Amino acid sequence: MTAPHVVTRFAPSPTGYLHIGGARTALFNWLYARARGGQFLLRIEDTDRARSTPEATQAILEGLSWLKLDHDGEVISQAARADRHAEVAHAMLASGHAYKCFSTQEEIAAFRDTARAEGKSTLFRSPWRDADPATFPDAPYVVRLKAPCAGETVIDDQVQGKVTFRNTELDDMICLRSDGTPTYMLAVVVDDHDMGVTHVIRGDDHLANAARQTLVYQAMGWPLPIWAHIPLIHGPDGKKLSKRHGALGVDEYQKMGYPVEGMRNYLTRLGWSHGDDEVFTTAQALEWFDLDGIGKSPARFDFKKLENVCGHQMAMTDDAALLHEIEAYLNVTGADRLTPAQTEGLGAALYCLKDRAKTIPQLLEKAHFVLAKRPLEHDPKSSKALDPVSIGILKELTPHLQNASWTRNALEETVAAFAEAGDIKMGKIAQPLRAALSGRAVSPSVFDMMLVIGREETLARLADVTG
């Protein structure tokens, strides 16, 4: 017997950037579908025409593209399907699962004010629910779902477990507004059904919506999807993630230079676990990811953990892929692009850079020695290392390097022999040599730098500081 085909979806509202929480939701849906040979669909929930913008849609698409979360088929616009949503509302009217409600906003507000004053439930029960059509006025109306007044609606959730809602707490939600436009709550159900979505994996702020949406599925006789409501992401202080905790949009993380594999790894681990594994490849994530690994408690976003994971992932990344990502980072930040010579030099240097940095800006700072042009600008600490005594040492060392074989072992032996002959400690040679070659007090090994920039450039940089 073959397993049923899995279809997941990510359905953001295009009212701003791709939020970090939304990115994780997309990632969980992508992992679940891809691991099972299923489909991952993308729907833009743009029914709020006043707040939805093409720029926000583009930002969402770019964020998903950066995270390498490819979707199947065309991007679905919820707004473009309004006629279909209305068709379903009218089908529920015809079957008696929905009704026309002529109550005005003023009447509903007055009812709630009275209920509040009397200490009663403010849940509105329309007087038109079971009204005789012969009494209908010639006036605007909304279409409301006829929700059951007794019993319970149970959500069998893959993360939260069984969650029970008393039907007395569920209102007759509006499906069509008085102008004939569908509401979000109806549109979501119709779209998920029509798109064949089998698993609805989303934030647990939608858990109560699941109960109300279940009633639409039941009214239409449609099979329910499998629900999985994941806890939201909190800041380090345990409060809901917000601007005060730092960056919220995925684009901001790209501009801060977090490598994409590190970001994906960290977001996968944020609220989901596989034993004690912290750092893993996409292939491992696909092999391991399942809904039962998602915790019930909110995950806490931790920048230190993110940096640590990014450092490990950068060290594991193929040089060509990392070089491509560096160029993309320079592009999105508006920085100067690398010249062909710089690209070649950086590619040659990555072996001694990528395990020493956690973000792309850190890596580029370590790569200063290969990206900078002569004569180098020296930072204050490296300038201090180039005092007259140190310059004298470098002047004496230069002829030895001129005659050395340009391999790591030969260079190390040459410098060691020079130090021993002059009774000079290696630090007294390494620090000024580092300063002369990189213009920085912190850099990769002096021998790595010499190998990367080559004999001619090494000797030219030494000549620049020794005169």
From TrEMBL:
ATP binds at residue 243. GO terms for molecular function: glutamate-tRNA ligase activity. Coiled coil: none annotated. Keywords: Aminoacyl-tRNA synthetase, ATP-binding, Cytoplasm, Ligase, Nucleotide-binding, Protein biosynthesis. Pfam families: Anticodon_2 (PF19269), tRNA-synt_1c (PF00749). Residues 6-307 form the Glutamyl/glutaminyl-tRNA synthetase class Ib catalytic domain. Residues 339-464 form the Aminoacyl-tRNA synthetase class I anticodon-binding domain. A motif ('HIGH' region) lies at residues 12-22. It catalyses: tRNA(Glu) + L-glutamate + ATP = L-glutamyl-tRNA(Glu) + AMP + diphosphate. It is an enzyme of class 6 (ligase). A motif ('KMSKS' region) lies at residues 240-244. Belongs to the class-I aminoacyl-tRNA synthetase family. Glutamate--tRNA ligase type 1 subfamily. Monomer. Catalyzes the attachment of glutamate to tRNA(Glu) in a two-step reaction: glutamate is first activated by ATP to form Glu-AMP and then transferred to the acceptor end of tRNA(Glu). This is Glutamate--tRNA ligase. The gene is gltX.
